[in-house]
Hints:
13% strand
Amino acid sequence: MFxxxxxxxVTPMDADxxxxxxxxxxxxxxxxxxxxxxxxxxxxxxxxxxxxxEEHLGVVRKIVEYAAGRIPVIAGTGANxxxxxxxxxxxxxxxxxxxxxSVTPYYNKPTQEGLYQHFKAIAxxxxxPQILYNVPGRTAVDLLPETVARLAKLDNIVGIxxxxxxxxxxxxxxxxxxxxxxxxxxxxxxxxxFLLQGGDGVISVTNNLAPAAMAAMCKHARSGExxxxxxxxxxxxLLHDKLFVEAxxxxxxxxxxxxxxIPQPGLRLPLTTLSDNAQSEVEKALKHAGLV
Length: 292
């Protein structure tokens, strides 16, 4: 269920920051038609940090409604307070989501034991499948392979989104967990190699813009077809880089707007519209990918 090309979906917003549900529905259809294998709703790219709990839950439920069972929906339910993460998870228990993506607690920098107890408490509070999410560049805390292995022994902790970009992590974790533990890359730049080396999928920002190419690339990479995967990935290589020229999701929202896929590149403060200099860099990447 959690494999292949999974989009870290943006949450489209109007110029005033209100969620644009019409644009959101169109994006869900775009991904289903393009062969995307799954949607992450309201993760980092979906601006979980600036949505209220009510909005967060509402956007997830709408994506489930729009998807109508045609594609798995994984909800971002992480928080840096364990009680808040449990609240979000329990609120979505019967929503129709296929699982939860739970980021490591950010800012407060827990120990490895604190991380273990945090995720254990969430897992024990819900029957939903839980995917761990390790992104030290965002959170200032690193979920180490040994802690992942401890957590993998809990029944409903089923996988991890590993976003360090360090391919050695893939092998360290694989050596410590059972074969059915799902290994997902959270780094577009190394996603193809992650799959070629035995990973199961990629939760991708680039997928917002080029879902068909990403789906095909992931399919070939998982099959070990290096040349075919590389041929599909190379045109996207600049996007993998330039979509992070400013903080995600600033560049990808501007790119979606530039491609006509959303009507506004709307964001909420403290995020601001992509700067002029960065726009030229993202434009070059879009042209390299053949998207404009």
